[in-house]
């Protein structure tokens, strides 16, 4: 056979390499990967933290302070800049690390023959000589010489720019053919659009064609999302406004109030530093990164950062059925023949269980009649069963695995039967035509085609007459119970037929049906109930039969509406009619990937934010169209994963719902960080502006304002990024996708809290002065009041949707407590350490002073809690209403 020569010429055998040989070759050839772009050096990354208009402004302020001889202020400004840059640097590093580490979770794999068995091998570990099996949706992992190709179409646009998929064959071509004409080769990085093939790896890594072109792996993703951009945009505008206001205030202070210009300048600089939320974007980045990590821990790997935000706003989840909502652990349950019915015993893939005829039928006669169908099920089949430690598992499609188990229960020995009936050619299964056919040489030398597929597909090919009424009645009975049905057919062919085409299966003999059970995942039932309370619609979009889909939908609690709409019906609808229909119908059956795309669009035209699952190569367009395209990590193709924003490691519907839960938490935390940061800055500013306008002594010095900013920036606000979910996150409706981050309630809070802060600070200021104490003491009181107020306000903000007065609310989290401990320690030093008194002009306070400040803080907390309740009762703000 010429192939044998080909294998040895390529340094391998038809059964692939041994693991040791592969190891050895890996050591010689190196990993099958392009060298990654060198990460930016830490020094450059650190310096980049200084590249912002705000930091330039701060540094200018620092220089001005130095020139004016205010060395302490200059030093504190420098400390603010350094602390911010360091925090930003560390956070950015952590965020990147979090994203990189989860990327490894979905590193691509290929199916190769190692030690004679099909093995999942990491693409990085492929070596020249490996035999790799390709199928639709795979990204070709290395440059390969094809030794077998069946309907293989490969999209080589990445390499040749040619958008029409190229047909591939195993034959020989002239040795100097240009790339596009080398039809017996597939090249690394191209995408299998249809069919199946087997190839021998000839080049890996930078030796491949794509390696020669690009040399580097360009996968550096920007750490940004729409929300983050919105905030950066806001921060820039806010900074501009603050700068203009600062100039005006400066003019007013010097010209009207008669401040010395250098004093006023330092003061205004400090104020601007205090007001501008320079740390906000960094804190939000870390909030997103924490969300990504929490989602990964719950089996949802985020590929594109913006999905973290979008998940929280998801209002519809469209899920396929098999494997996502059901377990995808198939068991053949019954055989339906023209004149017999048999029930199958046993569970799982273990080949143990009896097959008994129904009614008064004779078991042996009925089983005899079923033999051709059972053989068809075993031969028109690519799955293998494997036993390990008493547990039977499938390599390949679970339904095909169930057919192997069934054949074994009937006494057929898979390896023997497959050897006696060698497969000559096949038409692989494709969701578009919904059947698979294989051509075999029988032990007597005859050629036979076996076909298995969706009943409708086989009925359409069946040689008349078939008793449609009988078959449809059986299908309705079985599918109504949630059984999944497959039909089987066979046909004799003239000797010598070597290639199978669609015409060859135009007229087949229908052998019968097999019903399978695939129980719903128990956790999916809970997850769907959660979606209901969270105001999220669940739609099942499946390739399965309408009655099966509806029955499973009912078991899962999805199908309130007793209709299932089929792909054929969708084709008859206009986009407008479809948009009306998708609102109410929750089960879509016998759909193809094009229908999925139309359904997503129809839902989106109605304002929905749609998460959509998919696994096949043809699902890529709908995954891209969906707001959160979700690919299956296990059974999904590379094409689907690459198009998706999120990949589920366990293919489980419940993981999508968990990701939505985390997405909502992330968004809540971003709001909390913002809700805490802005009014606290606002309060500080208000105190000082009032003093300048009203013309009384300044309640805080420039240095003290800088101190407050320094100590709070990296502690309390950051703690909010780590907040766990609020109780009831999944009991409220999804947020509107166009809702502004600063909602009316938050804007109202900004105003209210700023006023309360100013009131408290000025209150203690005048009270202390009124007791005849020094202005330094009064200022120390103000600084402590502001900080203590911030701490108590933090506890209010931790729960925006429910009351904070609970055990859980009061105890805080370790992160919150650590942040508070740091702030308190800093504040004690500020108040009591002589050197700090020297630098910041502070003075030690008495125990009574401390008690007063804490008392006011507690009062602030209760006032804001009452306000939350009052606002909820008044129902002014939508987000507070349950
Ligand atoms: P879902 O879309 O929820 O995953 P599904 O697995 O039924 O459900 P498809 O994979 O599109 O969806 O399959 C559609 C139909 O094609 C199935 O209902 C079945 O009748 C038939 N089918 C599925 N797998 C095979 C196969 N390996 N060989 C032959 N026919 C198959």
At CATH's second level, what is the architecture of the largest domain? Up-down Bundle
The spatial strand order of the largest sheet comes to 8-25-24-23-9-20-22-21
How many beta-strand elements? 25
How far apart the termini lie comes to: 74 Å
| Tertiary shape | elongated
Which hetero ligands occur in this complex? adenosine-5'-triphosphate
Q: Provide the residue-averaged pLDDT.
A: 87
Instruction: Quickly count the helices.
Output: 32
Task: Present the secondary structure layout.
Blueprint: H1 2-9, H2 19-29, H3 42-48, H4 53-67, H5 71-105, E1 109-114, E2 117-122, E3 131-135, E4 143-155, H6 157-160, E5 166-167, E6 185-186, E7 191-203, H7 209-214, H8 226-256, H9 261-275, H10 280-297, E8 300-302, H11 306-313, E9 316-319, E10 331-336, E11 341-344, E12 355-357, H12 363-379, E13 384-388, E14 391-395, H13 398-409, H14 414-420, E15 423-427, E16 435-441, E17 447-453, H15 455-461, H16 468-480, E18 484-493, E19 509-517, H17 522-533, E20 537-541, H18 546-556, E21 564-566, H19 567-571, H20 575-584, E22 587-589, H21 593-605, E23 610-614, H22 620-625, E24 628-632, H23 638-643, E25 646-648, H24 653-694, H25 702-713, H26 716-719, H27 744-770, H28 775-797, H29 807-811, H30 814-832, H31 834-840, H32 847-874
The structure holds adenosine-5'-triphosphate (ATP).
């Amino acid at each position: 056979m010429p192939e044998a020569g080909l294998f040895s010429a390529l340094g391998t055998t038809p059964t692939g390499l041994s693991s040791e040989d592969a190891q050895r070759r890996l050591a010689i050839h190196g990993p099958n990967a392009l060298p990654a772009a060198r990460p930016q050096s830490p020094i450059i990354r650190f310096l980049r933290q200084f590249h912002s208009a705000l930091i330039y402004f701060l540094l200018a302020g620092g220089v001005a302070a130095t020139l004016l001889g205010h060395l302490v202020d200059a030093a504190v400004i420098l400390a603010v800049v350094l602390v911010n840059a360091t925090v930003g640097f560390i956070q950015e590093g952590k965020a990147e690390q979090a994203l990189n580490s989860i990327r490894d979770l979905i590193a691509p794999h290929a199916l190769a023959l190692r030690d004679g068995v099909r093995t999942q091998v990491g693409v990085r570990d492929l070596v020249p000589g490996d035999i790799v099996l390709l199928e639709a949706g795979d990204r070709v992992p290395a440059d390969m010489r094809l030794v077998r190709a069946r309907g293989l179409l490969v999209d080589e646009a990445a390499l040749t720019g040619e958008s029409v998929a190229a047909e591939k064959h195993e034959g020989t071509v002239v040795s100097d053919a240009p790339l596009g004409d080398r039809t017996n080769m597939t090249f690394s990085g191209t995408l299998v659009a249809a069919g199946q093939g087997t190839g021998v790896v000839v080049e890996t890594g930078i030796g491949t064609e794509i390696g020669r072109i690009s040399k580097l792996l360009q996968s550096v993703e920007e750490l940004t999302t729409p929300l983050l951009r919105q905030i950066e945009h806001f921060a820039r505008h806010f900074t501009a406004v603050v700068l203009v206001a600062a100039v005006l205030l400066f003019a007013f202070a010097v010209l009207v109030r008669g401040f010395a210009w250098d004093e006023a300048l330092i003061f205004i600089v400090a104020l601007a530093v205090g007001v501008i939320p320079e740390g906000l974007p960094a804190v939000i980045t870390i909030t997103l990164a924490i969300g990504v990590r929490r989602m990964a821990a719950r089996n949802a790997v985020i590929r594109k950062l913006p999905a973290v935000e979008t998940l929280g706003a998801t209002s519809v989840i469209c899920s396929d059925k098999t494997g996502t909502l059901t377990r995808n652990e198939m068991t053949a349950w019954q055989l339906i023949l023209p004149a017999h019915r048999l029930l199958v015993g046993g569970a799982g893939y273990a080949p143990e269980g009896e097959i008994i005829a129904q009614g008064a039928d004779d078991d042996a006669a009925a089983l005899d009649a079923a033999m051709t169908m059972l053989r068809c099920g075993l031969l028109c089949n690519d799955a293998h069963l494997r036993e390990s430690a008493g547990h039977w598992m499938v390599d390949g499609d679970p339904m095909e695995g169930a057919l192997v188990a069934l054949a074994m229960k009937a006494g057929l020995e898979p390896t023997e039967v497959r050897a006696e009936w060698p497969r000559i050619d096949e038409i692989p299964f494709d969701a578009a035509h919904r059947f698979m056919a294989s051509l075999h040489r029988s032990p007597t030398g005859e050629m036979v085609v076996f076909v298995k597929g969706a009943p409708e597909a086989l009925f359409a090919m069946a040689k008349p007459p078939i008793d449609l009424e009988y078959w449809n009645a059986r299908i309705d009975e079985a599918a109504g119970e949630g059984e999944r049905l497959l039909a089987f057919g066979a046909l004799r062919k003239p000797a010598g037929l070597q290639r199978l085409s669609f015409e060859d299966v135009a007229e087949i003999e229908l052998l019968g049906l097999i019903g399978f059970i695939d129980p719903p995942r128990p956790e999916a039932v809970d997850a769907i109930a959660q979606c209901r309370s969270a105001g999220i619609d669940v739609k099942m979009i499946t390739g399965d039969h309408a009655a099966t889909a509806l029955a499973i939908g009912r078991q899962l609690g999805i199908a309130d509406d007793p209709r299932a709409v089929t792909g054929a019906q969708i084709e008859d609808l206009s986009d407008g009619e479809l948009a009306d229909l998708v609102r109410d119908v929750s089960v879509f059956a016998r759909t193809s990937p094009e229908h999925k795309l139309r359904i997503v669009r129809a839902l989106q035209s109605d304002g929905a934010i749609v998460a959509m699952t998919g696994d096949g190569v043809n699902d890529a367009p709908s995954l891209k169209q969906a707001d959160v395209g979700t690919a299956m990590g296990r059974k999904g193709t590379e094409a689907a994963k690459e198009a998706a924003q999120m990949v589920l490691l366990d293919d489980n519907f419940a993981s999508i719902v968990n990701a939505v839960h985390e997405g909502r938490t992330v968004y809540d935390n971003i709001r909390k960080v913002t809700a805490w940061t802005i009014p606290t800055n606002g309060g500080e500013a208000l105190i000082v502006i009032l003093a300048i306008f009203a013309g009384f002594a300044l309640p805080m010095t420039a240095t003290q304002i800088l101190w407050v900013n320094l100590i709070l920036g990296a502690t309390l606000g950051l703690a909010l990024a780590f907040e766990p979910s609020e109780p009831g996150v999944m009991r409220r409706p999804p947020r509107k996708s166009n809702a502004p981050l600063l909602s009316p309630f938050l804007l109202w809070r900004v105003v209210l809290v700023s006023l309360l802060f100013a009131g408290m600070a000025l209150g203690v200021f005048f009270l202390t002065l009124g007791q005849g104490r020094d202005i330094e003491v009064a200022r120390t009181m103000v600084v402590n009041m502001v900080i203590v107020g911030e701490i108590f306000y933090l506890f209010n903000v931790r729960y925006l949707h429910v009351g904070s007065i609970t055990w859980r609310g009061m105890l805080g989290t370790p992160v919150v407590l650590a942040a508070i401990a740091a702030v308190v320690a800093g504040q004690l030093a500020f108040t009591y350490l002589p050197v700090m008194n020297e630098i910041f002009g502070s003075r030690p306070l008495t125990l009574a002073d401390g008690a007063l400040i804490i008392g006011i803080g507690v009062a602030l907390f209760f006032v804001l809690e009452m306000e939350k309740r009052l606002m909820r009762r008044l129902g002014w703000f939508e987000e507070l209403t349950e």
